[in-house]
Amino acid sequence: MSLILLNPSIERIPYIKSKRFMDTLAKVATHGIPKEADSRRNKNVLGTTVHESFWLEELDKILNGVVIDGRHIPGRFYYYMNYKYISTIRGVITPDMVDLHLEMAYYIDYCKANGVNLLLPKARRKGVSEAFHTMVLDYGWRFEEAYKGGIAAGKKVYVDDFLSKWRFADSSLPPELSIKKLTDNDDEIVAGYSIKNEYGAFEDKGSFNTIYARTMHTNPNMFKGLYLMDIISEEIGEHEKWFDFFSASKDCLMSGNKQVGSFFGFGTAGNVNKGSKDFKRISEEAKAHNFIEFPIYANRFYFYGGAKEKNRQLPLDSELYKKYKPYQLIGCEDLVAAEKDILTRRERLLKEGNLKEYNEDLQNNPLNKKDMFRKTITNNFNINKLNDQQHQIDALPAPKYSRYILDYVKEENGLPKVPWKVVARAAEKHEPDDYIVYIIDGEHPRHTHSNLYVAGIDSYNIDTSKTSKSLGAMSVRIRLNTIPGALKRAPVAVIRTRPPRKEQFYEMCLKLAIYYDLVGNVLGDIRSDGILEYWLAKGAEKYLALRPTSFESVYAEQSSKYWFSLNKFSRPLMIGVMQSDIEDNIEQNWFPMLIDEYQNYDEVEIDSDNDLADADGIALIQDISCEVKPKDLSNTERDDTFEMPEYYLDKDGDVMLKTKDNYDEYRRGQMEGDFRL
């Protein structure tokens, strides 16, 4: 049943029109209210037969819709087209006829009739907000019985914008459609009026229909306890903790165990951080949460017949003109011509080398889901490579990593065996992320090599922080190697958490160091020295990496034996290493949480909240600083790990590196006198 409801058979565009279509649909918007029925211009028309007849007919169209050439036009769309007034730089206007907005009206009717929700990921400036405010909230408040609706956003500016536009449109309506208000403030608008009763006291009368307006930035529960017929969620992409708001509000739409109201959520994907993570998630899980998804891409409301704005008018070479006459194309959109124009603009931006504007155009004017939920430039990392790798990860049927709990191998008395050994147990679904280690499938420790792994830690010294959302993080990377099937120069295991006690995080990192045998190869930021002291007290000094002096200023006053300070000098050096790794090895990175942090990385702020990215950058520093290359322990040949490279002059006098491959030739040349040291 639900699969049928969430796949409505709504007729797709274009909607071809007859000559009488616009005159029937938007007669009031085009010609105005007849003077015989216009009480605003002449109050004497009140009570006349013509006046009453006209407004009864209008109310019937608004409530029941109209049929034009066999096509039913919803009443809410008729109301929107004739009585919606919009303040623009060109003055006060009524909406253009656009197929997109009629299609939205069909979706709204369907959702309200079936008790389902509607999600609209959209490009910018598609008229969605204006249309939904009018066709859902204003229409319900004005024309439905016992109506209660709510509008919410994560930022106050969007709620204030709704109230401002609603009040302007309300003040522009003819008196016959106006409604008195008992309450009209920034929190709620209540329809009704006060009148003296037979005892001389004022009594509230009217429908008491209500629109609730709420900003949910700090409290997602502000609709909790209300019974609502509609909820509009503005700009989901900029609503942090949107899922908390949705979970707290969806019961407002229920009658017993049945959903009778509808939730309408829309917005541009925006900066895919904070709220847009929830936006992306609800897009991926739409059906599971009773949503129909109706993506509105950039080629909608772009070129269409009858547009008032010249730049939106159908191109003269539109293929639609080859099949239809101009009057038939009023409101019809040329999606092909629109996409061609968008791609031409993007090609120009690329040729100009304007990557920032190019990526912003991809996101603000998406032609597909990949563009919609991609990152724009927030740093100097190669955002295109990061986006492409994120897309590769999103396309996987399942993650390439699994969740594990690490624990010590213990004696019969329950104490850890000495020397320490650690095992990884697959975590159960119900086990919280607080204690989880993520490990790439097939990349558990390879004990056939020494110095194969390095690690970086971004730690903390206090259990919780009121000023930061920072987590603790550790990244274990496999180094360059020749092992068949193994990743190379890539993160293979990560921790990204903040358990109740800092000591629990310190212990998780120590277990991971033991598990990957990271002797002398765990580097961290000395400013968070709590974990350093914890490891030293526990006897885990052998895992600590020495100070990477090449990443320190010559004026550095640090005197510690281990680790380094991530500061204004060392941080830019680390960022340079991170940039190179993204350019050369990003296709080896299969942790979406790490890709996400690289995309959001703040290059300036020393104490950023992108802890896993910092940990990975620190691991990269250790990879460079560790002068001992990985060694195959099964290789019984002479150990040349610590030997300096040797060179010789060939017969042409060129300096050549002596290798195993040319060693025989080198020796033969020595004996024949052709080569010399």
Task: Describe the protein.
The protein is α+β, with helices and mostly antiparallel strands and 677 residues long. Among the domains are: 92-296, 3-Layer(aba) Sandwich (Rossmann fold), CATH 3.40.50.300; 401-631, Nucleotidyltransferase, domain 5 (2-Layer Sandwich); 644-672, no CATH class. It contains 20 helices and 27 strands. The strands form eight sheets. An eight-stranded mixed beta sheet has the order 7-8-11-6-12-15-5-16, with helices on both faces. Helix 6 (99-114) packs across helix 7. The chain is elongated. The termini are far apart. The model is unreliable at 671-677 (pLDDT under 50).
Strand order of the largest sheet: 7-8-11-6-12-15-5-16
| Average pLDDT figure | 88
Number of strands: 27
CATH class of the domain at 401-631: Alpha Beta
Structural class: alpha+beta
Radius of gyration: 33 Å
Query: So what's the overall shape?
Result: elongated
